[in-house]
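PROTEIN ENTRY
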Amino acid sequence: MKCRYCGQKIPEGMLYCENCGKEVRIVPDYNPLDDMLTAQIRGAINGDDDYIDYDSMNSQNTGRRNTASRNTGRQSGNARRNVTSRNTSQNVSRNTSRNNTSRNMSERERRRRQAERKKAMRRKKRKRILLIFLVLLIAFIGIGIGVYQTSYKGIVTKGYKSIESKEFDAAAGYFQKAINKKKEKPEAYTGLSKVYIEQKQLDKAEKVFLDAIEQQPKNADIYEACVNFYIDTDQKENIPLLLEDADDSVTKLLAGYIVVGPEFSLDDDETFDDVQELSLSTEKGCTIYYTDDGSEPTVNSIKYSEPIQIGEDETVITAIAVNEKGIPSLPVKKNYLVELPIEDAPAVSPSTGQYETVNQIEIKVPDGYEAYYTMDGTDPTTSSKKYSGPINMPEGETIFKAILINGKGRSSGVTTRNYVLEVE
């Protein structure tokens, strides 16, 4: 059977279409006798007396028929009653099924509508919750932005943005505000120094850190920020001076920036009587630079590669060690003195004595020396008369003194002669 509404095929026994939900209407072929029998059965069920009269009347009307016809009619009537009874039962069953189906469909519709209402309520509730969440999220974001803008990091960030836009006064204000907020943190000091660096004021930039270190002598973070400032501005030679007097707690944390100075093979607490050879050594990975004129060494000074010869007289050697990062050590200075042995007091002839004839006084001068003398009893110096050849002995009593002076200005001992010349 097919549904007359949608044309969908309906399985046998089904009372409604599964596709469109319409009830199935089973319309049997019209038969007036079936209607009459149905009316009789309904009257019998309801106790209607018309049922008997109706039957009697039917008997009178059919009296003219022969007995065989009546019997046949009765049999036919009985058969129709049985058919009508079955049809009536089927109709009642169909009506009951239709009612049940209708009730089932109504219940399903009611449940469907109730489910849709619940879904709609849930959707509405979810939308409400989502809206509340979005409002709270926006509020939290706004609060977070506000908190960040007034936080130490937020203020420092504003300072750097002002540097980028060349608004140096505004940048300095932001960094100073951050310093006042958290003076122990290094970022604001670094930012403030960059303000001065951008304006080519390195002294002010350095002072930012030195003032902070003076107030917080145990703050290793500010020390390190200052070290980085020296590195960035190519002032690495100031790093060892900065860390020289730092607190032990600071130097322990910043040990990577501290370079040990070179070692000298000779001490300078003695005077040498011969030319010396000086060797310098340092940690692995470091390079040594030195000077021999008393000036401070830099990476542009003499690079140590072989032992240094220490000659006669005073020699000042100052050396530094520089690590792979270009950070130098503190300078190490040694003052060496080499005094070569000199001749004893000069040989003077003739010897002390009384003379009656004129003699010449002579001084023996070794190579590399000069001789000076006096004839009035005073000790000679380089300001005295320089000996250039034999001297005539003066008449009367003379006290003659002489010394030798080497090329380094060192003097020998004094030779004294006492002459008395009495010429007849």
Q: What stands out?
A: The longest strand covers residues 396-406.
